[in-house]
Amino acid sequence: MITEFDSITYSNAGRGLQCLLKTERALNNINTNKDKIILIEEPENHFSYSNMNNLIDILQENSNKESSQIIISTHSSFVLNKLGLENLILLSNKKSSKITNLSSDTEKYFKAISGYDTCGDGGIIVKKIE
């Protein structure tokens, strides 16, 4: 099977575009399978700035699907802010904490990072399955 994207065959596409297409395909499969969990590890290592924005848009579009959960691990303040700090669950040493449970100084630090004032869009990193 030969897949094309904007007249570029998959095998000739860059690694970032290939990752974006694979991620989008996995997210589209949420519709066909119940109880899906999508794990995305450090997308900032694989995507250009424009493809990172495309990925975040795709994640936000897919974040409300029933019986699905999208989990992203990242060290990128851009990704954190773009997806919305209020939706984060921080994990460390077998403990979890929502951004609202952090000290006000820590919360201000994350929100004040220069050039990353993108929290207004909102988004979900982890959605609880009931």
Automatic annotation (TrEMBL):
<dbReference type="Pfam" id="PF13175">
    <property type="entry name" value="AAA_15"/>
</dbReference>
<feature type="domain" description="Endonuclease GajA/Old nuclease/RecF-like AAA">
    <location>
        <begin position="29"/>
        <end position="79"/>
    </location>
</feature>
<protein>
    <recommendedName>
        <fullName>Endonuclease GajA/Old nuclease/RecF-like AAA domain-containing protein</fullName>
    </recommendedName>
</protein>
<dbReference type="InterPro" id="IPR041685">
    <property type="entry name" value="AAA_GajA/Old/RecF-like"/>
</dbReference>
<dbReference type="InterPro" id="IPR027417">
    <property type="entry name" value="P-loop_NTPase"/>
</dbReference>
<dbReference type="InterPro" id="IPR051396">
    <property type="entry name" value="Bact_Antivir_Def_Nuclease"/>
</dbReference>
